[in-house]
Amino acid sequence: MRKNGLLLASVALAMLLLVGGAALAIEKRGGSGDDTLVGTDGADHLDGKAGDDTIEGLGGKDHYLVGGFGDDNVRGGAGEDTIVGFGFAEGWVNDDEGADTLSGGGDTDHLQGGLGPDVISGGEGGDFISDGLGDHGSPENSVDTIDGGRGDDRIFSMTYKPAQDVIGCGGGLDRVHADRGDEVADDCERVRYRMSHR
Fold it and tell me: 33 lies in which domain range?
């Protein structure tokens, strides 16, 4: 079984040259080992499958599948990305710029949004969700929507921005740290507010 590999060419690799000399868009799929998938500035499709995978999309409107049995680390990069986690392992997802969608899987996920109006769903398991580290100074309409899902989640949404985030927790005993103006659902058991700098 392959334990370590740099997959610059995968089992199914499709390269599409865009008109006008723009960046290539690629499709990469990992295997059962610990893979490293690196995208381009195009609209990439990256699928880590099983193993402890590292996935980096760079720019472009990318789509990621993070799943199987393994602890994955994903960085979305710039662009409007969709990151979907599934399976039964711990995952780390870090997002940069763009209006992105981040979804956790069946175990403990670490989901971190970035600049732009993100939609973050924790899924099963006790998750760590943050949208605050990259949103300081975001535009007024940069509203993040967070759903913790099942499990005992910890949600940090202290962004000091004018926009009011929407936060739901789902099942489990959840803890939320939010700005005073955020809309926090009643299913969030422990909520601590902090005054926003406006």
Answer: 4-194
